[in-house]
Amino acid sequence: MPESAVGTEKDREITFAQAVREALAEEMRRDSTVCIMGEDVAEAGTPFKVLSGLLEEFGKDRVIDTPISEAGFTGLAVGAAMTGMRPVVDIMFGDFITLTMDQMVNQAAKVHYMSGGKWKVPMVMRTTLGATRRSAAQHSQSLHAWFCHVPGLKVILPSTPYDAKGLLKAAIRDDNPVVFFEDKMMYKMKGNVPAGDYTVPLGLADIKRTGEDISLIATSSMVQVALGAATMLEEIGISAEVVDPRTMWPLDEKTLIESAKKTSRAIILDEGYERYGVTAELASVIATGAFYDLDAPVKRMGAMHVPIPFSPPLEDVTVPTEQTVFEAARKMCGK
Amino acid sequence: MPESAVGTEKDREITFAQAVREALAEEMRRDSTVCIMGEDVAEAGTPFKVLSGLLEEFGKDRVIDTPISEAGFTGLAVGAAMTGMRPVVDIMFGDFITLTMDQMVNQAAKVHYMSGGKWKVPMVMRTTLGATRRSAAQHSQSLHAWFCHVPGLKVILPSTPYDAKGLLKAAIRDDNPVVFFEDKMMYKMKGNVPAGDYTVPLGLADIKRTGEDISLIATSSMVQVALGAATMLEEIGISAEVVDPRTMWPLDEKTLIESAKKTSRAIILDEGYERYGVTAELASVIATGAFYDLDAPVKRMGAMHVPIPFSPPLEDVTVPTEQTVFEAARKMCGK
Amino acid sequence: MIPSNDNPMTTATETKSSQDVALYLRMYRQMVAIRQFEAQVNDLYTRALMPGLAHLYIGEEAIAVGICEALERSDYITSTHRGHGHCLAKGASPNLMFAELLGKRAGYCKGKGGSMHIADPATGNLGANAIVCGSAGIATGAAFTAKHLKNNRVAVCFFGEGALGQGVLYEVMNLAQLFKLPVIYVCENNSYSEYTHFLETTAGEILLRATAFGLDAEDVDGQDVRAVHTTAKRLIDRARKGDGPGFILCNTYRYHGHHVGDINREYYRSKQEEHSWKTERDPILNLGKWLIEQKLADAPALELVGNELEAEMKKAVEFAVASPYPDVSEVNEDVYA
Amino acid sequence: MIPSNDNPMTTATETKSSQDVALYLRMYRQMVAIRQFEAQVNDLYTRALMPGLAHLYIGEEAIAVGICEALERSDYITSTHRGHGHCLAKGASPNLMFAELLGKRAGYCKGKGGSMHIADPATGNLGANAIVCGSAGIATGAAFTAKHLKNNRVAVCFFGEGALGQGVLYEVMNLAQLFKLPVIYVCENNSYSEYTHFLETTAGEILLRATAFGLDAEDVDGQDVRAVHTTAKRLIDRARKGDGPGFILCNTYRYHGHHVGDINREYYRSKQEEHSWKTERDPILNLGKWLIEQKLADAPALELVGNELEAEMKKAVEFAVASPYPDVSEVNEDVYA
Ligand SMILES: Cc1ncc(C[n+]2csc(CCOP(=O)(O)OP(=O)(O)O)c2C)c(N)n1
Ligand SMILES: Cc1ncc(C[n+]2csc(CCOP(=O)(O)OP(=O)(O)O)c2C)c(N)n1
Ligand SMILES: [Mg+2]
Ligand SMILES: [Mg+2]
């Protein structure tokens, strides 16, 4: 039974996975054209158990197990979205978006524009990102930068259960193709989530912690890393602000730039490969927008330029950690 | 008959397309494991006629027409490369790399690393980029930023016939998967190309024009745009340096940064979508590397954040032109 | 659909129902409309009035017409780079099509799509597509909606035999059959994908590639509009009833080059081959002959159809040529809904 | 291959050639080796000694063994996420495999690959692959090389029936048949892809999906190693001769969960179903029974094989556990060749 039925009390804590499920359940109750499709989404509720219980409530016409045909069912969803459905497609590992690029980029993203605004594609792709699960190079990538690069798509990277629920509901109601990336390592993270209906608008960054000395601009699970680093920094007298853009497109440049202007230093944290990725865009936006206020070059911290290795000691050094962020920030602040 | 047979005289001018073909022909003569596969590459020599004559010289076992199966034959090339061939895969329009992402990113790029260095994938993918051919949204994209983002791949964007020949030969001899992007609008451009064997090493930027006041860092056909703008700037007394990174990965950061340090101003020009793309990476590299020398924020000029429109007056404003670059540079130099 | 103006027929034999007769004549007219449309496209190219390229449907008219005549207006189609015929057969207006081909504001897509992206909700046209096999997912999804919303619609996916090379086709045929979706995959085998013969790129048996996934698959002479229509009707009715997807293999030929600029074709196919298709298997000529034989029309009446439509298309071209380009400020409208 | 130590058989009937007998006993031994290897993997997981997960091949041993015994050492294979059996059957060393599974420097991939990426040029193993159907292109490409270099090799592509959902499989089967490549596609149909029964995801007839592309396709009882071997031999010989690709559909069952952590399986399959496969159709039990019936081995000899291999695998685990992790500095080696 979906958690949303549990109660309406104020300070309700649920997990990130539950928040995602609740968003889906509420939207499916509200709108019968919302349906879910993907591999092992029905009885199994996905390998991460994010969707458990949805089949029981909504039946197999709306929670649909597919063959292992990422391109095929993503394409199907594009057509379904054009003609009256609001499909939510589940791509189990973000590494498999490789197989959907043509459907998402050459079809979903362009249909509205190419048709002169006549057809719309209100679909959501939910998928995952994040390493350190010992899953090796083909199951650990964070490839969201590719979609961010493509006009016509919107891209969301929630970092808390609250944001996950509100942003996913907004995504489902959006009339455009939206890609929603969930960090696999965050599914069990708990947080305060209202039981009722609310949305978080796309295009609004959130300041997760205010500070004065340095801005840590972080996405997805890197927000937790930034918050951890901020706590460590506090102990040595550095006040760090943590800013979460939440949606990569539309991008709330203003909030990012304001923060960097205020603190005069910025580090960008993202779990995608560092080169030619999200860190480059955000760093460049800030380097331009806060040009006259920065005391130091914007620092980028993303995944190392290597395929993610399996061996635990190797994998652990490929992504930013509280410790490495702390060191970088300390150095930047000259302490 | 391939142009390379024509002569050995010094100041030989050939087209970009001829330079590409000559590189292939020379490498195929040198190494019998080099073969070409793709759609309409044999009798037709590709729709752009880049490969005309190769079938006649090398036969249909080495110049191979494939079905319209971009994923399939790219995957085949990965396996062929691992086992002793040096395949060169032809993807007619860069927009179709969407279909090859799994083979290129989850397979080709990772095989060497995942096998602990035991298997190698010496293959080349040749494909195209560039708009303004009135080909609309699905035949006009410049998606090279995606591959630049992926560790394990190398990415080349030649801007002259000379570079095209030398870089393609280097790519074929490289033991890694290399993606080689040709701007469709450049095929007829002429330039000086030695008839004999030479290579241009990957990872070396080239200063196409020296200048003092501003650096125009440009890729592929944007190099011509930059050179055109530089000529216009000269007339109003601004001396522009034009730097071509030539290979996006490996990236010659040093040359880019040195140039920006010298001139204290930089504009990045690339025909890919501006957001989350090549311009972001290069701008960020320079903003960091030349932080203490820049007089103004690095300016990025890429494709507008829209699917490429068909209508000529619309399409023409989506990409940087000599005029828009000139204006931007003039403004930046305060003239 | 092209309004069928005056009725060109003279006498009708007793054996055909008047409904059938009306259908044959409508199909004749539609095929001629497409051919005349394409003749104007070629002319625009030759006169250097059209930006970019276009892929002519001349020679293949019987397929689009035979199939679309078996569809309701609310049914869906998806089309290809060679899509003018499908769009017209599903009811598109030549005025708005030509305007789109010239990149004008009045075009179906405000000039943003061009020849390869004509789309029109009013006629159920989900869009032509410049990615080979790019619309197979979309058509299947439209059928998914039809089933889910129980709106009784059917979706038809047109594609050239080159699309048989794209794996996604097999993925969606599998999905369609599993979900019993009302979608018909129509393979237009004109023997060539660009400059390569299909036997060089297509192993095994095309029909089996559909039956292997459980689809009801049939082949038909793609030059015989009545045969195409009969087959289409059976599979469409079956799909509409909920009995699942179908596949139609239509053997056909394109008279012109792969695109308007493909003039010298002898390195990949003989003039003799082109000649024999044009003279012996032309869908319009042959239907015309049959109509006359059957005394359903006479030669002058058919000629009149040609003349009328030629005039209509010329007028449509004039409309498009005179029509303005979009304003540059429109370039970043319609990116997001 | 697992060295076949002492010969466990006692008497051999006259009707079998001694070659055949040696083959049966070798296949028995190999199947037991795989099962014992996997038992240790499960144990490592239970003892929380293994990073990540692993997908056990227990129950499916007859396929890898029956097929790899029909290959030369220089022939190629590609494998899957459920790949330990394929790698071992092709000759991998348990020491280096366990080391890899634990992420150790001594592993086949220096710890960089892990369970799903074992690769080894020395035994023609082009690599296990964590993308479903991810190696179909690679295997086809290896066969392309074999044909081009005329090196007389064959490539075998193992995949689960879930891979039938991936369009690229049809793309490469088409290519293989067009180019007459020496590649065999081996579909291990264990009825489930993760937690979903194949009938829910697979329309039509599996074998037809290969014959439609012209491949020589056969199905075989995947629990009968001798049958698998006979079929494999025919298709491999044929491919090696240049007669083109083959497809083998092996019906089988995995005894354990999708991965080692998939313990409660009753929501997707019954204990009863698992029980009947394990007791009635076990490839090792059944070959053992047959060997005894045929007087090619006796029960104690077979038991000895089990004990020997259990001991060997335990030693291999010890080697791996004791072996060091790679140095952190190695993390950015091997990105580029
Ligand atoms: C995925 C993809 N690959 C390649 C192309 C380039 N291309 C455009 S049309 C065409 C041939 C299509 O042949 P077919 O499907 O038989 O259609 P026809 O042109 O014969 O109507 C090709 C290869 C493309 N548009 N999309
Ligand atoms: C392209 C892709 N999609 C999804 C997955 C996730 N996944 C891993 S194994 C598996 C099921 C595979 O089933 P099957 O091919 O039958 O092999 P089996 O596990 O039964 O041996 C899935 C869906 C994946 N690894 N790759
Ligand atoms: Mg064709
Ligand atoms: Mg299976």
Short description:
The complex is a heterotetramer, with two copies of chain A (335 residues) and two copies of chain C (337 residues). Chain A is of the alpha/beta class and 335 residues long. Helix content of chain A is 35%, strand content 19%.
Show the helix and strand layout.
The complex is a heterotetramer, with two copies of chain A (about 325 residues) and two copies of chain C (about 325 residues).
Chain A: E1 13-15, H1 16-30, E2 34-38, H2 54-58, E3 63-65, H3 70-82, E4 86-91, H4 101-114, E5 124-129, H5 144-148, E6 154-156, H6 161-173, E7 178-183, E8 190-192, E9 206-209, E10 214-218, H7 222-235, E11 240-244, E12 247-249, H8 253-263, E13 266-273, H9 278-289, E14 299-303, H10 312-316, H11 322-332
Helix pairs in contact in A: 1-6, 3-4, 7-11, 8-9
Chain C: H1 18-46, H2 61-68, E1 76-78, H3 84-89, H4 94-101, H5 136-149, E2 155-160, H6 167-178, E3 183-189, E4 192-193, E5 196-197, H7 206-211, E6 216-221, H8 225-240, E7 246-251, H9 271-280, H10 283-293, H11 299-322
Helix pairs in contact in C: 1-2, 1-10, 1-11, 2-8, 4-11, 5-6
What do you see in this structure?
The complex is a heterotetramer, with two copies of chain A (335 residues) and two copies of chain C (337 residues). Chain A is α/β, with parallel strands linked by helices and 335 residues long. Chain A folds into two domains: 13-192, 3-Layer(aba) Sandwich (Rossmann fold); 206-332, Rossmann fold. Chain A is built from eleven helices and 14 strands. Chain A has helices spanning 16-30, 54-58, 70-82, 101-114, 144-148, 161-173, 222-235, 253-263, 278-289, 312-316, 322-332, and strands at 13-15, 34-38, 63-65, 86-91, 124-129, 154-156, 178-183, 190-192, 206-209, 214-218, 240-244, 247-249, 266-273, 299-303. Chain A has a seven-stranded mixed sheet, sandwiched between helices. The longest helix of chain A is centred in the first third of the chain and has 15 residues, at 16-30. Chain A is globular. The model of chain A is unreliable at 1-7 (pLDDT under 50). In chain C, helix 1 packs across helix 2 (61-68), helix 1 (18-46) crosses helix 11 (299-322) and helix 5 runs parallel beside helix 6 (167-178). In chain C, helix 8 links the parallel strand 6 (216-221) and strand 7. Chain C contains eleven helices and seven strands. Chain C is globular and about 50 Å long. The model of chain C is unreliable at 1-6 and 8-13 (pLDDT under 50). In chain C, the strands form two sheets. Chain C has a five-stranded parallel sheet, sandwiched between helices. A two-stranded antiparallel ribbon of chain C has the order 4-5. Chain C is α/β, with parallel strands linked by helices. Chain C has one domain (18-325): Thiamin diphosphate (ThDP)-binding fold, Pyr/PP domains (Rossmann fold, 3-Layer(aba) Sandwich). The chains are: A alpha/beta (335), C alpha/beta (337). Chains A and B meet through helix 4, helix 5 and helix 9 of A and helix 4, helix 5 and helix 9 of B. Bound molecules: thiamine diphosphate (2 copies) and magnesium ion (2 copies).
